[in-house]
Write a structure and sequence with these properties.
The chain is mostly helical and about 160 residues long. The chain is built from 6 helices and no strands. About 70% of the residues lie in helices and about 0% in strands. The mean pLDDT is about 90. One of its GO terms (molecular function) is iron ion binding.
Length: about 160
C-alpha cells in the first residue's frame, strides 16, 4: 500500500528534476538563441507588469494542460502533469517572486540554498545580452565561486576577441 503511494510521488519528483534540465536547456539554447526576441524583454529594465518573456510560461502551461487532458486516460501522464505544474509553481516562486520581485513580498535570502539561487540568477543578469551569460537553471545553481570564475573567463574571452 505504501509503495503504491510512493510511485506517484516518485513520478512527480522525477518530473520536477527533468523539467529543471529541460528548462535549463530551453533557457540557454532557445531563450538565449532563436527565442531571444521574446526573452530579451526579461533582460531589459521596464515598468510593465508583464513582459514578452512571459509567453514562455504560457507555452509551458499549455504543455501541462495537454498532459492533464491525456492524463485523464493514463494515470502516469496525470502525475507527470502534476510534476510539470509543480515545477511551474516552484519556478514562479523562485524566479518571479524571490529573484525579480515581480510579485509578492520582498525577501533577500542571507544564507543557504535560496541565497545561492538568488545570487546565481543575479549573476545571469550581469550581462543583459544574448551571449556571455552564466547560470541558466532556475532551481539548481552551481556554486557561486564557479559561476564568478566562468563569468571572468567569459569577460576575458570577449576582451581578447575585441582586441584582435
Amino acid at each position: 500500500m505504501l509503495f503504491d503511494a510512493m510511485i506517484p510521488a516518485f513520478i512527480v519528483i522525477f518530473t520536477i528534476v527533468i523539467m529543471e534540465c529541460i528548462a535549463t536547456a530551453v533557457h540557454k539554447y532557445i531563450m538565449h538563441g532563436w527565442g531571444w526576441g521574446w526573452h530579451k524583454s526579461h533582460h531589459e529594465q521596464h515598468d510593465h507588469v508583464f513582459e514578452k518573456n512571459d509567453l514562455f510560461a504560457l507555452a509551458f502551461s499549455a504543455l501541462a494542460i495537454v498532459l492533464f487532458i491525456i492524463g485523464m486516460y493514463n494515470w502516469v501522464i496525470w502525475w507527470i502533469a502534476i510534476g510539470v505544474t509543480a515545477y511551474g509553481a516552484i519556478y514562479f516562486l523562485m524566479h518571479d517572486v524571490l529573484v525579480h520581485r515581480r510579485w509578492g513580498p520582498v525577501y533577500l535570502p542571507r544564507k543557504g540554498y535560496l541565497k545561492r539561487i538568488y545570487q546565481a540568477h543575479r549573476l545571469h543578469h550581469v550581462k543583459n545580452t544574448r551571449t556571455g551569460c552564466v547560470s541558466f537553471g532556475f532551481i539548481y545553481a552551481k556554486p557561486i565561486d564557479k559561476l564568478l570564475k566562468n563569468l571572468r573567463i567569459e569577460r576575458k574571452g570577449h576582451r581578447s576577441t575585441r582586441r584582435r
